[in-house]
Predict the structure.
Amino acid sequence: MIPGPDLDHVTGLECLVCGAVYKPADIEYVCPRHGPVGTLDVRYDYDLVAARFASAPAVPSMWRYRAFVPVHPDAEVPPLRIGGTPLYATPDLAAQAGVNELWVKDEGLQPTASLKDRASAVAVMKAAERNAATVTTASTGNAAAALSGVCAAARMRNVIFVPSSAPEAKIAQLLAFGSEVMLIDGTYDQAFDLCVAAADRWGWYNRNTGFNPYMTEGKKTVMLEIWEQLGRRLPDVVVVSVGDGCIIGGVNKALRDLRAIGAIDHVPRLLGVQAEGSSYLVQAWEAGVDVLTKPPAPADTVADSISAGLPRDRIKALAAVVETGGAFVAVSDKHILGAIPVMAAEAGIFAEPAAAAAFAGLQEAVRRGLVNAGERVVVLSTGSGLKDIAAVRRGVEDAGRSPHRVPPDIDAIATIIEQERYAT
């Protein structure tokens, strides 16, 4: 029996492999029959969810949707304000992509500058439910920083496993927040396995994506926000960059939830975008391969946040695309880096490579006829460009953008201004 308060709106945890349903108090992470591939999905009493949401206060954070999240109604939330990020209408970006209407959800404005804060807030609350003294996760950077920051605010010890290839800015975040950092001389997948082993050995609470079923439930709040920000209407397409697959799985879960409470009668198509150098799910979707048996694929991309040789939430990710009639597309690192200055200059949104991959994927989908010009589209920008300045610099240099180096002389400035025709 796992300690923790009874959650009356959660009816069970369902294995996505065999369909077995478990009581939350009887199980922690994955289906015991299938081990790590036995991903669980949280099931709800939707009558109770609908009633609580109808009377929920319109707070400007993810806790506006507490009724949809598997935490106790009276549990204390972490003190950081997480969620409530802006959804920007971006007509100039729409023109660049070749669609009539485009919005960008800017998750780079979260407390630790990525969407992963949403899941980490839930992780910290679930750890507190279980009286766990330490929380752990493996990450290429963003999930780690999110857990690190939320734990710092909640005064909870955490241990982070990060591949040594992670950008320095992300590692610096972890150290600044006071985390215990294990910098692994290996891949993300190796860091993930070490984290699982460590959590098991020392009894730490495991936040890992695709292993902990509650992370989907935190990330799905981004789609619930989009629905309300669009006046309780839905776009035709939502574009999500995909690594482990938890975010796109969460977006799909939000759509299921909204349908279950009768708030919507149709869903948008979900477009999953991967880097060509880390395209496990693109390959599986195009070939119709079973993701339970497909072996890991190479993972080598500048977009570290979506680099995963074996996506841990691959069942939910694939289901998100299949159930909504969507698609997966792959884009090159060059295209990803090129999207960074376009998003910044055309919409003022500063995206890291993994976030810019979503916009690059939209451009590719329009080119291939997977998205039509007349459709209404939302792109998730999942993290700030401040996460990886080195990659951003490559993108702007490839775009031919560089500063003017001039002496401290107004006439030298005037020469440049007149040449560039900036003078009014």
